[in-house]
Amino acid sequence: MDKIEIQLQKIESLLSKIDVTNEKVSKASVGWHLEHLLLILNSSLKGLTMTNPKDYNPKFSLKKFVFLNFGMIPRGKIRAPKQFIPLDVPTQESILKLMNLAKERLKAVENLPEKSFITHPFLGDFDRKTTLRFLWLHSNHHLKIVDDILK
Fold first, then answer.
1. For the whole model, what pTM was predicted?
2. With respect to CATH, is domain 2-14+29-150 assigned 1.20.120?
């Protein structure tokens, strides 16, 4: 959990820069990337609490293996599902609200069974530990984009 908590601290430190853009790096602002990763984080953490561990059905996938072991997400190649695209221009308040919810949900999943899971639309079922790795990798991907926007 600590890795994601460190990312949440970094997001908090970036709140004053949410309106910064750099078209050479991304069409989206710093705030968009932060809000997007928090929407994914919150949805996935909630999802872990809503599945029946008995239904966990992992399947091998080369994409899943590469992503989870090497953390490779190609930039600009994958479109976020509509429910994970910020609806409005992100504000410090909207990002803080999502961040506080993420902190609560992180605590809530600590004691869930290991086979609690989410189903990723492209990569299949992730158990609790794998979900947390996925969330860290996905957040890291967007935080790297944010770092590049701010360079």
1. 0.93
2. yes
